[in-house]
Amino acid sequence: MSTPTIFSRLIAGELPCAKVYEDDQTFAFMDAGQVNPGHVLVALKRPAPTILDVTEEEAAALFRTVHKVAHAVQAAFSPEGITLLQANKPAGWQTVPHIHVHVVPRYANDGADLVWPRSNPPMEELKALATRIVVG
């Protein structure tokens, strides 16, 4: 059996956290590293590492809770925007191998930044790339 993640330990009540919401499949709690006040993490209770390891039903449950939490954060903090971030694997910026979504209230010039190199390939290249992606 693999070592429980910090999220598994929070969900199990082994470590303290500031819980925001819980249902049979999901658990939402304040991120200890607040980007802005109201930064919440929404995790599946089942300790699947990434989006590639969950069922379609689990993904739907996760994002139903994200939707509820985003509305609650908007009502509580009146941010100018909300960023949702779901990262997978270390190269995809994931730091805890337990699927979760960040719900981050955002404000103009709040210092939070998301930067990646952007290319603008021609439409023919985009169409060629699209043919490689088979959605089942």
Strand order of the largest sheet: 1-2-3-5-4
**Please, what is the oligomeric state?**
single chain
> If classified by CATH, what would the architecture be?
2-Layer Sandwich
Give the CATH superfamily: HIT-like
Q: Beta-strand level of the residues, as a percent range?
A: 15-25%
Number of domains: 1
Radius of gyration: 17 Å
Major β-sheet profile:
5 strands, antiparallel
Overall 3D shape: globular
CATH topology, what is it called? HIT family, subunit A
Q: Please report the distance between the alpha carbons of the first and last residues.
A: 31 Å
The CATH class is Alpha Beta
Number of DSSP-assigned strands = 5
- Spans of at least 5 consecutive residues whose pLDDT stays below 50 are none
Helix residue percentage:
25-40%
> On the 0-100 scale, what is the average pLDDT?
96
Protein name: Histidine triad (HIT) family protein
Domain HIT: 6-113
InterPro entries: Histidine_triad_CS, Histidine_triad_HIT, HIT-like, HIT-like_sf
Pfam families: HIT
Structure characterization notes:
The protein has 136 residues and is an alpha+beta fold. The chain has a single domain (6-111), classed as 2-Layer Sandwich (HIT family, subunit A). The chain contains three helices and five strands. It is 27% helix and 19% strand. A hairpin with a 3-residue loop joins strand 1 (19-22) and strand 2 (26-30). InterPro entries: Histidine_triad_CS (IPR019808), Histidine_triad_HIT (IPR001310), HIT-like (IPR011146), HIT-like_sf (IPR036265). This is Histidine triad (HIT) family protein. A motif (Histidine triad motif) lies at residues 98-102.
